[in-house]
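For homework, think about our next protein:
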Amino acid sequence: MRVRRNIRWLKAGDQIPPGEPKRSRGGSNNEYVVLRWLTDTERLYALEHRVVAGLDAEAVHHINEVKSDNRPENLARMSMSEHSRHHLGGISDAAAAQRLRAEGWSWAQLAARFGVASATARRTLHRLGTPMSRTVSQGKVEQQSWLRDINDNRIAVGEVERYLALGNHQLRRRFMKARLLNASR
């Protein structure tokens, strides 16, 4: 007969179970080390860095950014706000980023320019009041004329992708929209 066990993640105030836990990879990209203990009634899980730093820590930061390096000297206990500020404040020149966004730069282009993730670029500029969608500008008109050229002249998709700095999915969606508009004329 198979024993049914409750699954529970350890949290602040919980005692670490006795015995050696099993280690495995987990987290968003299997970057973190997950510990698992089996008791008679439960399967208990915890992220290794939280056990090493102490379960009562609000947030734990990996100093060298390697999520599986859980040596105590590589872990820093922080408040959630400190940890967020550390990871989300990545754009050093926000005024330049706002100007580039207004000129029509995509989030991917801004992220590459400032060496941060696209989500970090969006969050940082959103906090500064930057509109999240591009305003109608010369860039939009230029994009629309290029889409007409794609439809009329069979321009290679790769060439247009590089020009517009769009992903393949976005470009194809816009291409289909332009094709439908031209067909209805």
Q: What stands out?
A: Helices lie at 48-53, 80-88, 94-102, 107-114, 118-127, 138-153, 157-164, 168-183. The two ends are 70 Å apart (CA to CA). The chain is about 45% helix and 15% strand. The longest strand covers residues 32-38.
